[in-house]
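thread: overnight batch results

M.L. [08:02]
morning all. the overnight job finished for the chain we discussed friday. pasting input first so we're all looking at the same thing
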Amino acid sequence: MQEEVTQKTMAFSIKSAKLTAQVLQAAARKFLETQNKGKTKLHHGQQSLKQLKKHGAALSNIEITDANIGLFKPCAKKYGVDFTLRKDARLIFNLNATA
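M.L. [08:03]
and the structure it wrote out:
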């Protein structure tokens, strides 16, 4: 089980006359806040193509007719599929989804 657990180590320096648990806790909280600021939030479900490309996963493309879109959306929501719809001139939707 030890092999399955991944541990991360943080290193930071604190200038303090007396190191207490409260000072250490405040320093760790501030460090974690600065680490989390740079992360971007990814969208899920139906989104624009630009947002979908930010996921970095491979995109696959399928064609669906207008009648099948109503059936597709609940299934995509159920299985957590990220997708975008682009309407074609022939009223066929191109579905781009992350794999």
